[in-house]
Amino acid sequence: MKSELKSDSKSVWKTKDIQIRDPFVLPLEEEGKYCLFGSTDKNIWGPGTGFDAYVSKDLENWEGPHPVFRPPADFFADANFWAPEVYAYEGRYYMFATFRRNDNGRLGTAALAAERPLGPFAPLSAGPVTPEAWSSLDGSLFVDEAGDPWMVFCHEWQQIGDGEVCAVRLAADLSQAAGDPVTLFRASEAPWTTPFVSPRYPDAVNYVTDGPFLFRGDDGSLYMLWASFIDNTYALGVARSESGGILGPWTHQPDALYRDDGGHGMVFRLFDGRRALAIHAPNRTPEERPLFLALAEKEGAISVGKPLTGSGE
C-alpha cells in the first residue's frame, strides 16, 4: 500500500489555530506521522468546496492544508461537506463523508477512494450509500470478526425526531449497500441525553444522534462513541455491545464521556501504543478546534483523561 506523503505545502499550524469539525486521525506508522481529516470549510453550513488535511509528527505542529478532495463537475452535491473519515482497507484508502444531495435535499454518506492517504480522493459510490429517502449522516466504516465491512451511520433527528444509530452491511468493494439498514438504538434510550430544543422545531421533542465510531477495547469489547446533547450543550457518550458484535444489543454508559460542548469523537493509537480520543470543541463556528484526550478502559467502561500535547485548549 502506498502511504508516502507528498506535498509542496510549507505552512505549519499549531493545533489551537486549526478550524476543523469532526476530526479524524489516521496514524501512518511507517511514516511516523498523523494525518488529520475533518470538516474544513470555513462555513460548513453553506456551499461545500471539499476537504483538506493536515500532517503532524507530534499532534502539535501540523503541516498543510492538503486539498485531499475537490468535487468533480458532475458531483451529486454542492453543500454541507461533512465528517470525512479515512481508512486503509484492502490496499487502498477509502473516505466516508456526508453531503447534501442536490436532487432531494437530504443528507447522505458516500464512499470515495484514493491510492494514497492524502488523495486525491474520487467518488467510488454512485451517490450516497445510505438510503435515498433517508436523511443520513456521519457514516463510519467497521469490519466485523468475519472480515465483512459495515457502515454505521445516523438516521437524522430532523427527519424522524428521535435520532437513530443504524448499521448497513456493505459490498466487498465498499461501493454500495449489501442489505437493508438495521437500527441499533435511538438517542432517547441513553440515560445521559436530554431533548434538543431547536428554534426550527419549537414544539417537537427531539433527540440527536451524531458521529458514531466503533472500536475494540483491549479486552476485546466492542464500544461505540456517539454524540448528542445535554441541556442543548454538545456532549459525547459511549455504548458497549453486549454480544461483542455490531448488532448489539448496546448498553449505554450512564454518564456522558465528555459534556463540555465537545464531541463527534474517534479513537486512534499513538505511536507509543497509548489510545487517544479526538473530538472537536467547542461546538460553535468558527471557534471549533481539534482536541486530543487520553483514553482509558477499565472493567468494561471507558473514561477520558487529560488533554494530550497538541490539544486545542
UniProtKB/TrEMBL annotation:
Site annotated as Important for catalytic activity, responsible for pKa modulation of the active site Glu and correct orientation of both the proton donor and substrate: where? 138
Q: Which domain of life is it from?
A: Bacteria
Which SUPFAM superfamilies does this entry report, sorted A to Z?
A: Arabinanase/levansucrase/invertase (SSF75005)
| GO function term, MF aspect, one | hydrolase activity, hydrolyzing O-glycosyl compounds
Instruction: Write out the entry's keywords from A to Z.
Output: Glycosidase, Hydrolase
Q: In which pathway does it act?
A: Glycan metabolism; L-arabinan degradation
Q: InterPro entries, alphabetically?
A: GH43_arabinanases (IPR050727), Glyco_hydro_43 (IPR006710), Glyco_hydro_beta-prop_sf (IPR023296)
Q: Does the keyword Hydrolase apply?
A: yes
Q: Which GO terms describe its biological process?
A: carbohydrate metabolic process
* Family per similarity comment: Belongs to the glycosyl hydrolase 43 family.
Name-wise, this protein is Glycoside hydrolase family 43 protein
